[in-house]
Design a protein that fits this description.
With 262 residues, the chain is of the alpha+beta class. The protein folds into 2 domains: 138 residues, Fructose-1,6-Bisphosphatase, Chain A, domain 1, CATH 3.30.540.10; 108 residues, D-Maltodextrin-Binding Protein, domain 2 (3-Layer(aba) Sandwich). Helices cover 35% and strands 28% of the residues. The protein has an 8-stranded mixed β-sheet with strand order 4-3-5-6-7-8-9-10, with helices on both faces. Strands 12-11-13-15-14 form a 5-stranded mixed β-sheet, sandwiched between helices. Strand 9 and strand 10 form a beta hairpin. It is globular and about 50 Å long.
């Protein structure tokens, strides 16, 4: 395979599968959180570090010229192509033995997301995308929802301790004002992937980081969803707001929650 992006993508799929197997082996039994708190509702498990280390080592061995950035260790290598990993997205769910968590690995070419893998092993689901080659769930093509009436939509919103009190409720009230059904599931990467596959019609999080969304940005683009300019608005170097939506309700949702899609 001569295309360097496709070559890396195929190699990374096996790495993520091995990382997912490790995470499942280390997974806590159902119950209270088996983790430490970095901040309010911001959890860290032993698995986060182990999974990130496995992916970093394997990617580094195969592609030593590539950059690498993880949620836990930050940027450990530099390169024009950069891997960005969230070793366990949805750690609060993982720490309690719940199923809604994933490993998210994205590939950036400069400032452009070009490939992504989101593996949710407890759900037996793998989302994949390469820019210009479509988006897939377990090998089947996916597309954003065709919903055009916000009153029939399902919208998820993520919570962050970095957002001032009252904002979450304000935005949820705006979503309810559209007649939409709100929910919150604890994994931004899975939520964005579900917008890409049409299981839900929008996702909003007021403060989220690149490692949470790098893989999903490619999925959303390839699946035909609309996304706010997360990277332009500061997401490359710090936290920023993201709004992703099915194309036919994107403008109405954007106006309601006050997040521009332009």
């Amino acid at each position: 395979m001569s295309n360097p992006i496709l070559c890396r993508f195929e190699a990374a799929r096996s790495v993520v599968r091995d990382a997912a197997a490790l995470a499942m082996k280390m997974r806590p039994a159902p119950g209270g959180p088996q983790a430490t708190q970095k901040a309010a509702q911001d959890w860290l498990t032993e698995t986060d570090g182990a999974v990130e280390a496995l992916i970093s080592q394997r990617i580094g061995e195969m592609f030593p010229e590539d950059g690498f950035q993880g949620e836990e260790e930050g940027r450990t290598r530099t390169g024009s192509l950069r891997w960005v990993v969230d070793p366990i997205d949805g750690t609060s769910n993982y720490a309690r033995g719940r199923n809604r968590w994933c490993i998210s690995l994205g590939l950036m070419d400069g400032d452009t997301p070009v490939a992504g893998i989101i593996e949710a092993p407890a759900l037996r689901e793998t989302y994949t995308a390469v820019r210009g080659h479509g988006a897939f769930l377990n090998g089947q093509p996916i597309h954003a929802s065709p919903v055009s009436d916000p009153a029939t939509s399902l919208i998820e919103m993520g919570w962050s301790n970095r957002v001032r009190p009252g904002v979450f409720q304000q935005k949820i009230d705006a979503i309810l004002g559209l007649g939409a059904m709100p929910r919150s599931g604890g994994s931004g990467a899975i939520a964005l992937a579900e917008v890409a596959c049409g299981r839900q019609d929008g996702y909003l999080e007021m403060s989220i980081n690149l490692w949470d969304v790098a893989a999903a940005l490619v999925l959303l683009e390839e699946a035909g969803a609309r996304v706010s300019p997360f990277l332009r608005d500061g997401g490359l170097e710090g936290d920023a707001t993201i709004l992703a939506a099915a194309p036919h309700i994107a403008d109405a949702l954007s106006r309601a929650v006050g997040v521009s899609m332009d």
